[in-house]
Specification:
Elements lengths: L29 H4 L30 H7 L3 E7 L32 E5 L12 E3 L19 E5 L3 E5 L2 E6 L5 E5 L30 E8 L5 E5 L5 H8 L17 E7 L3 E7 L18 H5 L3 E7 L5 H15 L8 E6 L4 H14 L3 E3 L8 H21 L8
Parallel strand pairs: 1-3, 2-4, 9-11, 9-12, 12-13, 13-14
Antiparallel strand pairs: 1-8, 2-7, 5-6, 5-8, 10-11
This protein binds guanosine-5'-triphosphate and magnesium ion.
């Protein structure tokens, strides 16, 4: 199947801002927008006119370093369910009705605290360190039960792993997934509850229970269909920019990308493949060299991998071997995932010369392309679709619900 659009596709990137607004309107010089000599005003007219000449508001693109501050992939959270309301102790009172009997209502139960996946949330930065659920209301007279506490939802990004101690409690990897982080306490009983044949006028009522209290560790592991793995400067971010409209920073120095970015590639029939740009890996990353292990876990969740090799270096095939080695050292079998090898920077003259040698060394299909000029990007997009279709088929064959974007 042929992709609908090659260079433009809707996407989301981690907390990335909207492109900056143009500095002048419609290319007009500022002098033409503002009168040369403003006529004297008889009265102050506020800013209604001045605002016309102000720059239209627009969000600035966040730099990768600022983005790093916003991108949080670990959080320790103390969650406490809401307390139950207390039961009531009172007696029915009505004119000319003696001994009306106990009519104290039960307290409402406390609200749960629930973690819920919101696809719009991209990092754990919005998750606070402490949550207290809503308490239930106390019971009332005339057998009225107290209102139960509302559920408190904490929105988390897709791919959040919930751990208690070292035990994994939940893996929230699909939109709408929920996990009850803390149960609300049960409401207390009113004195009506204690009415019995041998006790016609109980005064006993019980207080509501406290909500459950837990300390949870939330860990974000990016979920995408394809993960781009490569050395720094291999051109991963440039490639993601070329195939989707995600806008990760591109620069000629290593470790430009500090957080994973996800872009969406659109195909015919509203099919969307999510591709993640993972920060560069170097030799010894599993020993925490370079950016180390902190982001290798983002690769774990990707369903298939795109190894991006830089054709401008003298022996590009060693890059592929080192990448595989690092992945294996991090987690056994990680490099065995379905993958494609992408050789970038084919536009450079030395790259064309070295390509046959790379193919011979690897003995596998290599997609040679240029993220800069757009040469041969179609082959990558077609291959991506083949990998995606194979995954969908396998999941549907197993009776599982495949990950759709
Ligand atoms: N000639 C040429 N240069 C490229 C190509 N793709 C990327 N580059 C350049 O290579 C440099 C690194 O590109 P990036 O996309 O930032 O590389 P990266 O793999 O994301 O790097 P890190 O974020 O540091 O891991 C930039 O100067 C790009 O302009 C290409 O196809 N041809
Ligand atoms: Mg990058």
């Amino acid at each position: 199947m042929v992709p609908v659009r090659l260079f433009s596709a809707s996407s989301w990137t981690r907390l990335e801002g909207v492109m900056g607004a143009p500095s002048t309107w419609a290319g007009l010089p500022l002098g033409r927008l503002l009168p040369q000599q403003a006529p004297p005003r008889p009265l102050s007219t506020g800013c209604a006119d001045c605002t016309k000449h102000q720059k239209p508001p627009g969000k600035k693109l966040l730099s990768e370093k600022k983005l790093k501050k916003h991108f949080v992939d670990h959080r320790r959270v103390l969650v406490r369910g809401g307390s139950g309301g207390s039961g009531m102790s009172c007696f029915h009172s009505e004119p000319r009705k003696e001994f009306g009997g106990p009519d104290g209502g039960d307290g409402g139960s406390g609200g749960h605290v629930v973690l819920r996946v919101d696809p719009k949330v991209k990092s754990l930065s919005s998750v606070l360190s402490h949550y207290q659920g809503f308490s239930g209301e106390d019971g009332g007279r005339k057998n009225c039960s107290g209102r139960g506490g509302a559920v408190l939802y904490i929105q988390v990004p897709m791919g959040t792993l919930v751990k208690e101690g070292s035990e994994i409690m939940a893996d929230l990897s699909r939109p709408g997934d929920e996990y009850i982080a803390a149960l609300g306490g049960a409401g207390g009983k009113g004195n009506r509850f204690f009415l019995a044949n041998d006790n016609r006028a109980p005064v006993t009522c019980t207080p509501g229970e406290l909500g459950q209290e837990r300390v949870l560790h939330l860990e974000l592991k990016t979920v995408a269909h394809a993960g781009m793995v490569g050395f720094p400067n291999a051109g991963k971010s440039s490639l993601l920019r070329a195939i989707s409209n995600a806008k990760p920073a591109v620069a000629s120095y290593p470790f430009t990308t500090l957080n994973p970015h996800v872009g969406i590639v659109h195909y015919a029939g509203h099919q969307q493949v999510a591709v993640a740009d993972i920060p560069g890996i170097i030799r010894g990353a599993h020993q925490n060299r370079g950016l180390g292990l902190s982001f290798l876990r983002h690769i774990e969740r990707c369903l298939f991998l795109l190894f991006v090799v830089d054709l401008s270096v003298p022996e590009p095939w060693t890059q592929f071997e080192h990448l595989k080695y690092e992945l294996e050292k991090y987690k056994e079998g990680l490099s065995e995932k379905p993958h494609a090898i992408v050789a970038n920077k084919i536009d450079l003259p030395q790259a064309r010369a070295i390509l046959p040698q790379l193919r011979a060394q690897l003995g596998q299909e290599v997609i040679a392309l240029s993220a800069l000029t757009g040469e041969n990007l179609e082959q990558l997009l077609l291959h991506l679709k083949v990998l995606y279709d194979a995954y969908m088929e396998a999941e549907l064959g197993k009776g599982c619900q495949p990950l759709r974007w």
